[in-house]
Amino acid sequence: MTPITLLIDLDDTLLLNSSSHVFPAYLEALSKHLSFLGDPETILKILFQATVQMEANLDPRTTLKQVFDKHFYPHFGIAAQDIESELVDFYTNTYPTLAPLSQPNPAAVELVQKSFERGDTVAIATSPYFPLIAVEERLRWAQLSPDEYPFALISSYESFHFIKPHQAYYAEILAQLGWPETPVVMIGNDLEMDTYPASAFGLATYHVENSPFSISGENAARGPLTDCYDWLHSQPKEALMPHFSDTHNYLEIMRAVPAALQTLLRDIPPAQWHEHTAQDEWSITEIICHLRDVDNEIHTPRFELVRDDPNPFIQAVDADAWADERNYQQQNGPQALIDFLESRTALLELIQSLDEDFQKKIIQHTIFGPTSLFELIKIASRHDRLHIQQLYAQLPGK
After folding, report:
1. What is the pLDDT of residues 54-103, one digit of tens each?
2. Are residue 230 and residue 174 in the same domain, yes or no?
3. In total, how many domains does the chain have?
4. Is residue 397 a part of any domain in this protein?
5. Is residue 398 part of a domain?
6. How many alpha carbons fall within 13 Å on the CB side of residue 389?
7. Pairing between strand 369-371 and 363-365?
8. Burial readout 357-394 (b: 16 or more C-beta within 10 A, e: otherwise)
9. Are 55 and 163 in contact (CB under 8 A)?
10. Partners of 122 in the β-ladder
């Protein structure tokens, strides 16, 4: 019995609500709660502007909360920590009063229960506009309390860097899950936010809807949530495996992996960065140092060569030997992660500057022979996935 990784949307999928009622009520309640900052209408305006900035973010160095904080609090001359207690009070005491605007979905509870009983991985793939405390509260409204259900991941603005419908959002979920080698299915009710972007990224999808229309793609389906479990387990494994097929897919993987590493490693004690969980395995510090140096000394020079040389010739490099030669184990892991994020951001900008003419260029490689820019990007993203799997296996409880 092959386990499945389920990415399930929350609003109007697991929880029956109407964004046209719930979201305005939420904004009104929050603006009133923060009225000590100024006029509620002004607060609403700045909330909206900060939200738009979150939606646009594609910087793997910056969480959505950091984006929001940067574009909200300076307007009122305060820092986020200055009113943290007020926000905790709002989400603890006021936010739960909005529960009557939503209804639990019995089909959702049944789907989640059966999936856990079967041994599937279940992640809450809600668009991360909100803090974790708010998402967990809505899960309670759906009768799916995180205290009772061991969700592998709940996306929130503290832990995510990208938002729907960016493909990087879906890549970041998989990266934070350690890039599972299992079938993966996105289940949601919104075509523009769930079905289309997840499918474009290469994931199987199940669109929760009863109205008649067709969805293109061999790994796409539609129907009521009551039919979802049976559909999932009537599909052959291969039909539900991720299939990445274009440059954009691989670039979003390269964007999401370093972003996810920040979340996975933010609470790791200093000593654990240097632990070896197995005799032949690298420590977390060694993995991060390896990723940093490969970006700086292999990936970046290669793409610069493709850009600058009319007949680029790429030599293979044994980067694995660097761990001992450069004594990675004694280096500063958290600083190496910061350096990796900087190098990766610059590398993505470099790759995205290469237009269609570079896509057509023939590149000679000492091992692969004639290759292409697309293949180099694909190789780099595969390298990321390999090492985040390696690192994830060393984290506590994984």
Report:
1. 999 999 999 999 999 999 999 999 999 999 899 999 999 999 999 999 99
2. yes
3. 3
4. no
5. no
6. 10
7. antiparallel
8. ebeeeebebeeeeebbbeebbbebbebbbebbebbbeb
9. yes
10. 6
